[in-house]
Amino acid sequence: MKVDVLTLFPEMFTGVFESSILGKANEKGIVSLNAINFRDFSLSKHHTVDDTPYGGGGGMVLKPEPIFAAVEHVMTSSVNPPRVILMCPQGETFTQKKAEELSKEEHIIFICGHYEGYDERIREHLVTDELSVGDYVLTGGEIPAMTVIDAVVRLLPGVLGNQMSAVTDSFSTGLLEYPHYTRPAEFRGWKVPDMLLSGHHANIEVWRRQQALKRTFTRRPDLLDKLQLTDQDKKYLRELRNNKQ
Question: Which single residue of 30, 38, 113, 166 has CA 20 to 30 Å from 232?
C-alpha cells in the first residue's frame, strides 16, 4: 500500500511515520508513507495556497489549484485510481468498518487542510471520500489523518506480530473487547479470574464472549443493535438486563 498525505505541515508526520507499528511497516516495505507539502505546487510568486472567500465573510479558503496539482502529481505512480480522502468535520464518521474497507486499497491520498475551509470544487471534482473522526473541530486535518492511517495500516498482513490482535480488537467483531490479564496471578489482592487460569480453552472463549457482551452492554449498548447475535448471546444479554432491573 502507498499512502500520500498532502499537508502544509509535513514535519508533523515525521515521528508518526518513523515510530512504532507504522515505522516498522514502512521499514518492511508493507506500506510506503509520504508527507508532501502542497504549498510546493502553488503557482503564485509567494507560494500562496489560500484566499478570501467570494461573497465575503471571515477566514480564508484553500485554493483549488495547488491541491489539484499535488493530487495529480502523486497519482502518476498509481496503476489503479487511488482513494482521495478529504479530512473534514462534515465528512462520514470514521469507523472500524471503514478502516477495513480502506485497508484493501493500493493507494490512498489524504488531503489535510489547516485553519481554513476548502474551495468546494475540491470536494466536488477531486475527492472520493470525506472523513471525520468525530463531532468536534481541530485546527487541521493532520491529526485525524494520522488516526485513520494508523487504524488502516495495522490491518495490513504482516504489520502486527499476531494478526489475531487486529481481528479481536474492539469494534472489529462489533463488540468492545473483553478484559485482558497477565502475570502475576494476584497483584495487591486483585486476582485474575479463575476461568483464565483453568486451561479449558472452550470455556475461556465462552467467558471472553460474555465479557465482551457485558462490556458492550454497559458502555456502548447502541452497538448491540447492529449485531447478529446468537441465541446464546441473546440469553446472556437477557440475564444482564434482568440483573440490572
Answer: 166
Look at the chain and report how many structural domains it folds into. Answer: 2
Clarify whether 154 is annotated catalytic: yes
- Separation in Å, CA 46 to CA 39, 114, 130, 156, 212: 10, 18, 29, 41, 56
CA-based nearest residue to 102, from 137, 164, 149: 149
Distance between CA atoms of 238 and 141, rounded to whole angstroms? 43
User: Grid coordinates in use for 53?
Assistant: 472567500
Confidence of residue 245 (pLDDT cuts 50, 70, 90): confident
Tell whether 67 and 147 lie within a shared domain. yes
For residue 184, cis peptide bond before it (omega within 30 degrees of 0): yes
Active-site choice (65, 105, 116, 233)? 116
Q: What is the reported pLDDT for 166?
A: 64
169 is catalytic: yes
User: Domain boundary residue among 154, 188, 210?
Assistant: 154
User: pLDDT tier at 244 (50, 70, 90 boundaries)?
Assistant: confident
Q: Assess if residue 74 is contained within a domain.
A: yes
Q: Which domain holds residue 202?
A: 170-243
From the annotation, which residues make up the binding site for S-adenosyl-L-methionine?
A: 113, 133-138
Greatest Cα-to-Cα distance within the chain, rounded to the nearest angstrom: 72
Q: Is residue 161 part of a domain?
A: no
- What's the pLDDT at 158? 96
